[in-house]
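Internal tracking record. Fields below are filled automatically when a chain is submitted to the structure queue. Please do not edit lines marked as system-generated. If the sequence contains nonstandard residues, flag them in the REMARKS field before resubmitting.
Queue: standard
Priority: normal
Entity type: single polypeptide chain
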Amino acid sequence: MTRKVGVIGMGHVGSTVANYIINGGFTDEIVLIDTNELKVNADATDFTDALANLPFHTKITVNDYDALKDADVIISAVGKISLQKDNPKHDRFVELPFTKQAVKDVAAKIKTSGFNGILIDITNPCDVITTMYQKYTGLPKNHVMGTGTLLDSSRMKRAVAQELNIDPRSVDGYNLGEHGNSQFTAWSAVRVLGHPITKVAKERNIDLTELDEIAKAGGYTVFHGKLYTNYGIASAAVRLARTIMSDAHTELPVSNWHEEYNTYLSYPAIVGRDGIEEQVHLDLTDEEKEKLAESANYIRTRFEDTVASLGD
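SYSTEM-GENERATED OUTPUT FOLLOWS
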């Protein structure tokens, strides 16, 4: 069976996503779409130049929404990262004035194409935009998801791993809620060195509040160094796409629809070829439940305000 992926938005993140996919041989066909025709055609030519030196062949199509009809996965990397430049509060909502209209337009084109696969959103603010994609494409809720706190969880694992001098893959746990300022680490669900991290932290005098802040600040540190982020988020998106295409049924903290809160937010779920196959239940503390509810309320309110501003 031919594997096919679409990447919409070929800026720093989208082009890195495409590079991972092509160099890794993760798809047989890739559709690259961007409003900047010079950029997307340059990327396509550059990738084609690389094919002779790669162990895999990938068919590359440019700016053809109709070609998305039989895609397994579409990854939305639409954005305008330059809006983050003067943003001392590191609020991902500064991109919303641009992304809300761009995503509405893109969603309409995806719907017209007849696409019925799984849509992965990277575009910020991730949870609100993911909700918009579901609304405007009409795809089933379990077929639309955002990378959400898959990246924030990775940053948390990096912070914990550096503190304990271990591999980040040896840290098990999640950040939950919004992919933004209201997200938090659910320390009650984090395990390391065979024990709950709360036990390890107490024994080794580790400040979990400080580690939480280090994890949150990870993206800002990268942004201030080069004025964009790309490798971390691209690896999260590609991992998610591969999980779907291989029907892996892997537990991942992605932005998925929660009836309880009437919004998309990040919480672990089982991901496979049918998108969100099953939602996981964590035994959170009362404080963590309160934080999650607050984050959900923030996302839902901002989504409602956004749709109202578009006149829908």
